[in-house]
Each structure stands twice: as C-alpha cells, then as structure tokens.
Amino acid sequence: MSGETIGARIRYWRLRRGGMTQTVLAGLAGVSQSYISQVEAGRKTIERRATLIGVAAALQVTVADLLDQPGDPTDPIKAGAADAIPVIWTALIEIEEGERRAATRTAAQLSAGIARSAELRDQANYAVMARELPALLVAAASHDDGGRALAQVAYHASACLRHLGYRHLARVAAKVALTAAETSGHAAWVGAARFATAQSLPIEAAGVASRVAGRALADLQGAAAAPDVRQMLGQLHLSAAFASAVDGRADDARGQLAEAAREADTLGDPGDGAGFNQACFGPTNVKLWEMSIAAELGEYGRVTEIARRVRPDPLRAVIRHQSYWLDLGRALAHSGRNDREALTAFMRAERAAPMTFTLNPLAQDAVVAMVRRARDRSLSDDLRVLARRVGVDVHA
Q: Which CATH class is domain 6-67?
C-alpha cells in the first residue's frame, strides 16, 4: 500500500529505539503486545487519543510524528493551502509586532471578505480559505473598529490552520484573536478566542487545554447573561470535556458535558443553524461532542446509541456533519464485525467534507484496517473508491 499508516510509523520509531520489542512498547504504553502487533500490521487502528499519547511517550516522539502532520506539502489536496501558510505566518508576526499597514479595504469590503471567509469555513473549504486569509488578516488589522474584525479573522485563521494540521500556527492566530478581542471588550469574542486557544493545543497538552478552558469559563461567568456569551461558555464546557476525556479524567469530562447540556437546553439549537461565530452551539452540537467523547473513552456502544437519537441536519457547518459520521464509522469499525455499516458512515463523512476526511490520519487508518480485514474476501467497489481517496493502493 502507498503511504504510511500510523502503525507503520510506530514500527519505524520502535526499531529506531534500539530495536525495542513490541512487548516492551506495549508495557510502556499500557496496552497488550497483540494490540501493538495488530496496529503495526494495519489490522487495528488507534481509536483513542489517550492511547496515541501513551505510545508516542513510550517511543519518545510527538503525536504529530505518529500522525505525520502537517504532512507532505506537495500533496495535491494540501498544496494550494501549503503555499499560503508562510504568508499567513508572516501576517500574524506583523500583527503581533504591532505593525499596521494603511487601510486597503473599505468597511463594506472588509465585511464582505469576512462573510466569504465564514462561508468557506462553513463548507470546510480550508484550501481556498487559507489563500484568502493573509490579505484579510492585514485588512482587519488596519481597520479601526476597536479590534472586533481582527478577532474574527484571526479566529478564522486559527480554525483553518488547525484543520490543515498546523497547530503551532493555529495557537499563534488564537493569541492574536485573544488580544484583539480583549481590546474590543467584546466578551463573546474573548470566549471564542479562548476556545480557539484550547483547541489549538497539541494532543499531549490535553490537561493544559482543559485548564485553559476552565480559566476562560471562570473569567466569562460575569458576562454570561448575553446569549452569544452563553453559547461560547457552552463551547468552552465542551472543549474542557473533550480535553478531560483525552487526559483520562472521565468524571470531569462527564461533568463538563452535563454543564454544556444544561446551557444548551435553555438556548436551543441556533435558528440559522450556526449561532454566534458559527459555533453551532445547542442541544444537537452537544450530542455530537458527546459522541466524540464517548469514542475517546472507548464507549463505542454509547456512540451508536447516541447516533440513533440525533442527526447533524440542523447545523450548517459541514465539519459537524463529518464529525457525526466519522465517530459513528469508527465505533462501528471497532470490532471488525460491522465494516459494511462503517463503510457507509465513512462515505457519508467523506462526502460531507472531502478535504478534511482525506487529511485525517485516523480516518485513513480506519480505512486501511477495513481494506486489510477484507483481504480474505473481495473488496466492494465502494471500499475501493474510498481507499483511493485517502491514498490507499488497494492493489498492493
């Protein structure tokens, strides 16, 4: 098969560590030797981020090393975006250093540019979004509105960079958004920037991400009456819940999730399907995050149970639709007995947001495992097509 799976990279680094055996690696990572063997062979996937962290720590590498992120910039799927990354970085540095250019856009033109960026974000079209962000960042920084436009555009930049795999730059953008939001005095944008900061931290820093979200929640409590602030409070509860799950604190995760659910029940789903800052906060989004948290905790039956009771249809952001189908697919594929249903879910996830699905190493590994499990029988045409889309050579 073309391309390397997470299992192949684990094997590479294990052998680099003085020929470390699978048994030693398993002991250090807190899993079984047979599990490591199946992961390295591509017959099983690493479904929990906590396990990924443990394996990376045992191998003395980063999770990004195992996920191969941000990946090959010559990949045609990412190539258009990769060209824009250095320019985005330069724009962020310029803004951080306090440099401001003369205004290049009128207020109406800037507003139109932000609206287009928001639309691209809803569509998860991060390649086009990345190409337009440098000029938009510079224009927002030069606009005299107290920082609100810059807070919004820098938030867009952070989300875009994170989904493309550039978390270190996503954190820089989140910091720019936070400074601008605090300057503007707009509590909801402060909450949004804090959420972006927590989301941009590497997987290994899940405990830090949880504490970042917790501090932001405490800071925003005094402004919580406004609906847009309450939506961001809810999102921060969700961020803290997921980070707690990755950090192995299941009780804290469930507590934060319950707080988010209480907030969502009083607000309802956003009437326009997006809500403040396109966060989509409401009962439906809370359930989607609950699916992700259950998957992280290894509660795959819980994932499928929630999936039967909720659909992402009320939400406008296609990335939330993809989250639903991806988590459901991973849960169904976990045992290897429901690969046909898992394939259907993965196809729906890929259809929702093709670029992010193709760039998702966990999705790729799940497809690889399904292909290898199917070696003893013929591969369906649908599995062949999906495999090719994530760069898997089914003939190898």
A: mainly alpha
